[in-house]
Amino acid sequence: MTALEFNYSIAQTSKTLKPFAMRLTRNADDANDLLQDTMVKALNNREKFTDGTNLKAWLYTIMKNTFITNYQRLVRQKTFVDTSEDAYLINSLAYSSTNQAYNSLMMADINKAMSIIEEAHSKPFMLYYKGFKYHEIAEKLNIPIGTVKNRIHLARKQLQKLLTMYR
Questions:
Q1: pLDDT in tens, 115-131
Q2: Which residues form the RNA polymerase sigma factor 70 region 4 type domain (predicted)?
């Protein structure tokens, strides 16, 4: 394929690339930029195109890869990197403290709510909370697995109602 034939084929195919560019970018100006970048790359890499292969698929691949590269570049530009000397302190747990009083009050409220819930519902829930599987709870309590799931669900619902202050 001569350079003139290649340029003509690309010009004809570029009309079908515009909708694809719009789908990728969702912006008319960005789509035009992407289409232009694709055409420039195709013209610069004409020697890499093999005669007899699908020119349209080749251009679509160039466009998709160009879009991905531009997107990754944009994400990297928006990433903030703190280079200060004290950056190691930002995520350090050694210099942070937790409010144990808040945790103990929350646990007191949870235990109080659990005492209000029927034992038939709270017992399967507590076993599930401790890490038992549904079938293990069913065997341990000698009830069907569907009943276990239902009782755990009901216990969760009751806890949600009783602990609305923690939402």
A1: 999 999 999 999 998 99
A2: 123-159
